[in-house]
Amino acid sequence: MKRMLTQTLAAVALTSPALPAVADSEPAKVAQPAASAPDKSGRVAVNGVNYYYEIRGKGEPLLLLHGGLGSIDMFEPVLPAFAQERQVIAVDLQGHGRTELGDRKFSLEAMGDDMQGILQKLGYSQVDVLGYSLGGGVGFQLAVQHPKVVRRLVLLSAGYASEGFFADIRAQQGQINADAMAFMKDTPMYQSYVKVAPKPDDFPKLLGAIGDFMRKDYDYSADVPKLTMPVMLVFGDGDMYRPEHVIKFYQSLGGGLKDAGWMRENLSQNRLAILPNATHYDILYSPGLVSTTLPFLNGYPK
Length: 302
Description:
- This protein is α/β, with parallel strands linked by helices.
- The chain has a single domain, classed as 3-Layer(aba) Sandwich (Rossmann fold), CATH 3.40.50.1820.
- It is built from nine helices and eight strands.
- It has an eight-stranded mixed β-sheet with strand order 1-2-4-3-5-6-7-8, with helices on both faces.
- Strand 5, helix 4 and strand 6 form a beta-alpha-beta unit.
- The longest helix is centred in the middle third of the chain and has 15 residues.
- It is globular, with a radius of gyration of 18 Å.
């Protein structure tokens, strides 16, 4: 029972690829440099949530948004490489890592607004954004609701509608609730949470909030055309999203509708990448992730 629940939690499209549960996957065996201490860290209170953030590196700003039941630490496999070329701003989302859950309803739209407020208070008028899973949903809403703030957007293992998941994954997502806490105390997800959370006893409350959030069907297809900035979609070839959903997402952005032309005259400004030998759970360990996304974020090729 405990193993089944842990697998269910790992299938909510919200879990950390940095957990030992995926250590036997080939991409996770690639040696990664350790993330350095942040150049700056602190808290920003926005819309009733006291968010924790970290900043590393120099260059054009890049906002990283992690997946659910994770934290900034989820980006450890790729953060050093990004920070070599960019100034990276990473935020612990509502209820995650070092940011308290509070009593406010858990929603992508609200967190999208929150990210704009954080950036404004930190002095950023425009940033590039890379969001993974839950963080991809937040990045999507930030870009839809505040398009002038987002220069380029990378959505990593993040779809636009609940129908995009494989049916068995969607069924498993509906099982998450606060009662799952009884099975979680020995799992890496719980242990990583209590290590940094300001209120470790809030973990059941977080499970309940995420469970309520995931049980609701959603469809943001009408918002996809509002993404007027360059967008890159990145999925693993073993992701939890159906390939049909991935292609439909790309086509809704204007890509994959016709041949690009000899002189690239019909090429969409948006990009699609399917990383080989990568799943939803270990995609941050994919050797090709940084080399695929960083040139796009840097604006190459023109």
